[in-house]
Design a protein that fits this description.
The complex is a heterodimer.
Chain A lengths: L9 H5 L4 E3 L7 E4 L8 H9 L4 E2 L2 H8 L1 H10 L7 E4 L7 E6 L6 E4 L5 H8 L6 E6 L5 E8 L9 H11 L3 E9 L2 E8 L8 H18 L1
Helix pairs in contact in A: 3-4
Chain B lengths: L2 E6 L7 H16 L3 E5 L12 E5 L7 H11 L4 E2 L2 H7 L2 H10 L7 E5 L5 H11 L3 E9 L2 E6 L2 H11 L5 E6 L5 E8 L2 E9 L8 E4 L2 E4 L2 E4 L6 H14 L3 E8 L5 E8 L15 H11 L3 H4 L23
Parallel strand pairs in B: 1-2, 1-3, 3-4
Antiparallel strand pairs in B: 5-8, 6-7, 6-8, 9-10, 9-14, 10-13, 11-12, 14-15
Helix pairs in contact in B: 1-8
Classes of the chains: A alpha+beta, B alpha+beta.
Chain lengths: 217, 321
């Protein structure tokens, strides 16, 4: 859990790609960014800050973005996750597929009767890399929300937003859930660069930062 | 009795030397009453059923080996390679930054971003670090994405190419030698030492020349015959990364100066090569994982090298911008 953050000069930094939200205590400093992709600027900012109590850590970012690791960390932390397995290509539809490789950028939803082989070839890059396959229950829907400093615009996801923030320490993320039988299951956590954020999300981010700033002077 | 999982990939068992080494790990485990099972990618979710994990597949934070390592850690299993070691060793930018910060001797090094890839920077670096320069992408491995540049045009072209997958790259001064030392280290103790000879047509131990991959020969030497300063420097450098299994590459120049070229997690262990003068290395690794024994408690003879890997005094400071 985060201690209360004491944000300073917040609004001016919101539009920057990377913004360090300093606090009085080193252990409560947060690197605000929406993109911590491995070997990118956000990742290196975390790497250079390691050992100084700044969150998220590089380990946090990889845990969040690598789907099978995110699922297991979430499950251990008590969040609902779907049935999943790792495969070289064989799976039963319906399912949602994620690649585990340096080039993984997308996912594939394969419905009953869909082209499983084509989807597997695409996600595994012609069988070179492993696939994380999540089973989709009958009638399941895929939903997404923007997690912004532990909050969501959509009140249905308030608890999820808080949990993802607490477990993975990412300030901003796009979260994909599987909705089935009236319950949500974590599917993936992805980057949420400021440029990709919805207008409502930007308003929420600025209001959260402003609120914190006013509270903490 | 413990159960050790060894994560392997198809390519791990393609070469007879690697396959034979895997069999020797199994024999070493069984000699001490332990079980050793090989796991392939689709079986990684079985990791929590084991007592320890040994990864024998290429490591990268974005491939399945990192998933294996994190699954083991999340379930409290000892693991080689641990995820921190993978993160550091697979990212040369972070590795050199930490080595430099700890005072380990490395070639003169600069970390560059996209704004630095321009002729003006090249001229400055040629003046400061000499000519040629060595450029490395952060994810370089097995000598790939490591290039020697002689002029401004090559610097800019190589830099732009290396920035495709990363926002930073490494530039170093060139250290000319005819071979690299490789020191295998387990938990701060030397396991084996080798000389990796550099083919005459290139500057690295493995390169594509005229469309064919050229490998340098490997000469294994007993640890006790390796220069003491080489082994000591390797132990210091590996200690910066962690207490797992590493292959530290070093160069010793004609004047005796030793520099760390890199610290590798997941070092090669081929039957008849690395184990030639260290037949007990299989046992040492297995027992380290399953019984938590320190390497120096199970080796039969002292090697005379210091056990502490955190004693980083008396090393020359290099610099990273």
């Amino acid at each position: 859990m985060y201690p209360e953050l004491c944000f300073q000069n917040f609004i001016a930094g919101v539009r920057k790609r990377l913004y360090v939200l300093d606090t009085e205590l080193p252990s409560t400093t947060l690197l605000l960014n929406g993109d911590y992709e491995y070997l990118g600027e956000g990742y290196y900012a975390c790497a250079e800050a390691e050992g100084e109590g700044i969150l998220p850590t590089c380990a946090d970012t990889l845990d969040a973005y690598i789907v099978p690791i995110a699922l297991e960390r979430a499950r251990i932390s008590g969040l609902a996750v779907p049935e999943w397995h790792l495969t070289n290509g064989s799976f039963e539809a319906p399912a949602i597929l994620y690649g585990v490789n340096p080039f993984a950028r997308s996912h594939e939803v394969v419905r009953e009767g869909g082209d499983k082989e084509a989807a597997a070839r695409k996600i595994s890059r012609q069988g070179k890399f492993v696939i994380c396959c999540q089973s989709l229950p009958h009638g399941a829907e895929i939903v997404e929300f923007e997690m912004i400093l532990g909050h969501s615009i959509d009140s249905r996801f308030s608890t999820w937003a808080r949990d993802i923030y607490d477990i993975f320490h990412l300030p901003l993320a796009r979260v994909r859930l599987i909705e089935a039988n009236g319950q949500f299951y974590l599917s993936a956590i992805e980057r949420l660069p400021y440029g990709d954020m919805s207008n409502e999300g930007r308003v929420l981010l600025e209001s959260r930062l402003k609120e914190r700033g006013e509270r903490n002077g | 009795m413990g159960k050790l999982a060894v994560y392997v990939e198809r390519y791990t068992i393609a070469r007879p030397e690697e396959l034979e080494a895997l069999m020797r790990f199994k024999n070493a485990a069984e000699k001490h009453g332990h079980e050793l099972h090989y796991l392939f990618r689709p079986e990684l979710r079985k990791i929590p059923q084991y007592d320890a994990l040994f990864i024998r597949a290429l490591t990268d934070p974005l491939n399945a080996s990192y998933v294996a390592s994190r699954l083991a850690e999340m379930h409290g299993l000892p693991v080689i390679d641990d995820s921190r070691s993978i993160r550091i060793c697979c990212d040369k930018v972070t590795m050199y930054r930490l080595l430099s910060k700890a005072g380990a001797p490395i070639p003169p090094t600069r970390i560059l971003g996209a704004k630095d890839i321009k002729p003006e920077t090249a001229e400055v670096l040629f003046a400061e670090l000499g000519r040629p320069l060595i450029m490395k992408a952060p994810h370089s491995s097995f000598s790939s994405h490591v290039e020697k540049v002689e002029d401004v045009e090559a610097f800019v072209a190589t830099g732009r190419r290396f920035l495709h997958r990363a926002d930073r790259i490494v530039v170093q001064g060139f250290v000319r030698t005819t071979f690299d030392w490789r020191v295998g280290v387990l938990n701060g103790e030397p396991l084996y030492t080798c000389r990796y000879l550099i083919p005459s047509k290139t500057f690295k131990v493995q390169a594509i020349i005229d469309g064919k991959i050229e490998y340098g020969n490997v000469e294994t030497v007993p640890v006790s015959d390796a220069p003491r300063e080489v082994v000591e420097t390797a132990l210091r450098a590996s200690g910066v990364i962690g207490n797992g299994l590493y292959g530290v590459d070093l160069k010793q120049t004609d004047d005796g100066h030793v520099v760390v070229i890199e610290v590798n997690d997941n070092p090669s262990i081929n039957a008849g090569e690395e184990d030639r003068f260290a037949p007990d290395l299989y046992e040492r690794i297995v027992l380290h994982l399953l019984e938590g024994r320190w390497a120096n408690q199970i080796t039969s003879q002292g090697d005379g090298y210091p056990g502490s890997v955190n004693d980083l005094d008396h090393v020359s400071l290099s610099y990273v911008r």
